[in-house]
């Protein structure tokens, strides 16, 4: 499994940096964001280092699909599955991607408002 030794998410996956994990399987790990934007803010990360959606290939199909399976399970375990939650993947600097390791944000626990602010 590909890993970037300088990537903070790869270090979390490897257990080198502690994280408050809420889900883990062979392909993905989910943990609380250290700077939450909503009452429930979980990051769901493939264990393999994939920089962004632009770098995803057919070889990543299982891990990418597992992100959504994990999201459903995390939503259920955190109590937001019935009230609603948002899944967000930022791709590149203009989208706000800060860590160059593909990841999905799960937001919930409050009404979330519009997806994108009007221009």
What would CATH call the architecture?
2-Layer Sandwich
Helical/strand content category: alpha+beta
| H-E order | HEEEHEE
What's the mean pLDDT score? 94
Integer count of domains = 1
Query: What is the CATH fold-level name?
Result: HIT family, subunit A
In the CATH hierarchy, what is the superfamily?
Answer: HIT-like
Helix content: 10-25%
Quickly count the helices: 2
Provide the CATH top-level class: Alpha Beta
Question: Whole-number radius of gyration?
Answer: 14 Å
SSE layout and pairing:
Layout (H helix, E strand, L loop, with lengths): L7 H6 L7 E4 L3 E5 L7 E7 L14 H18 L6 E4 L15 E5 L11
Antiparallel strand pairs: 1-2, 2-3, 3-5, 4-5
Q: How would you describe the overall organization of this protein?
A:
The structure is a single chain. The protein is α+β, with helices and mostly antiparallel strands and 119 residues long. It has a single domain (8-108), classed as HIT family, subunit A (2-Layer Sandwich), CATH 3.30.428. The chain has 2 helices and 5 strands. The protein has a 5-stranded antiparallel beta sheet with strand order 1-2-3-5-4, with helices on one face.
């Amino acid at each position: 499994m590909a890993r970037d030794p300088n990537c903070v998410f790869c270090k979390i996956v490897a257990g080198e940096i502690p994280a408050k994990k809420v889900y883990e399987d062979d392909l993905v790990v989910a943990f609380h964001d250290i700077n939450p934007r909503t009452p429930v803010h979980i990051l769901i990360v493939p264990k393999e280092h994939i920089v962004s959606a632009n770098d995803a290939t057919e070889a990543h199909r299982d891990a990418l699909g597992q992100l959504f399976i994990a999201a459903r399970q995390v939503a259920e375990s955190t109590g937001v599955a019935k009230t609603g939650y948002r899944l967000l993947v930022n791709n590149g600097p203009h989208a706000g991607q800060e860590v160059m390791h593909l990841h999905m944000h799960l937001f919930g626990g409050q009404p979330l408002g519009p997806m994108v602010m009007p221009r």
